[in-house]
Give the backbone structure.
Amino acid sequence: MRKRTEPVALEHERCAASGSSSSGSAACGRWTPDCRLKPRCAADAGMKRALGRRKSLWLRLRKILFCVLGLYIAIPFLIKLCPGIQAKLIFLNFVRVPYFIDLKKPQDQGLNHTYNYYLQPEEDVTIGVWHTVPAVWWKNAQGKDQMWYEDALASSHAIILYLHGNAGTRGGDHRVELYKVSAGGTHTCSLGWGDSVGTPSERGMTYDALHVFDWIKARSGDNPVYIWGHSLGTGVATNLVRRLCERETPPDALILESPFTNIREEAKSHPFSVIYRYFPGFDWFFLDPITSSGIKFANDENVKHISCPLLILHAEDDPVVPFQLGRKLYSIAAPARSFRDFKVQFVPFHSDLGYRHKYIYKSPELPRILREFLGKSEPEHQH
């Protein structure tokens, strides 16, 4: 055995030098018995592969960003060129949640004292209506036919005509729970478009509501009839009540839950508009197509022509229709001359309660609020 006489460091230097020489290609890419250091060319190749992967990822990310930006810019032009898109987004009648329920069977939703009607306000138009009788009659209502329910409207109980908001059906969970609350002492007739025939429009929905109101009045005699609108349904409700007041057949009261001032202000305040709210020409791109489609829902104008008691309910933490729009509507209605002989009341619900846009029915105070408001007759403005 030959004795090692060279220092280890010197041997390593020689190995490194031989591995980095331009002519030593045979030594590159493999280990030698005398050298345990990784060749520099292998490290360079690994670095190049990493840089290549990073560059490819950046190119894909940039392509995605350009696509998103292009879509962001294209959507306003698409809506402007096709105003019908905005109408679809306003009504959302194609969103029929909850799915897989049979609206012909309200008992499946826990409404054992409810009957399903189909009314025809005009040719080729059919609207679905649920009629819930007062809860004290639930046993008598079992198995009864349409004639029994129609005759029941002539009993000594008030009737609420309920106009729900956009999307979903009259079988929505929060709507069903409200029917149960209101059924404590009244009939509730809920008009819905979930299984109705026809294309929704502001004019058409108002006409449908008018038809149902007249249908109720023809069967209820002198019993009080109240109009209750929620969210988009408040626009239908004020349209309806304004028309009723103009023909001198006003309802006994109007209740607006989570109302807005007009559809333009609501659309501008809606959470869906956040990403475009500061887009150049926002009104021209997004709001003008709504108006050009004949959709106004001008609650702020309608209340100036309404002559009946008005109750406004609004939760401070409403994320869909901002609380300030409900407050603003009250500030317009309260001093209006049309209400000088009628009470106007605004009831806020603190944000700590968590009622948001559609859970005011959970308030244990709601039955008392309704009872006191509908039971009073003297003119007053409250908030």
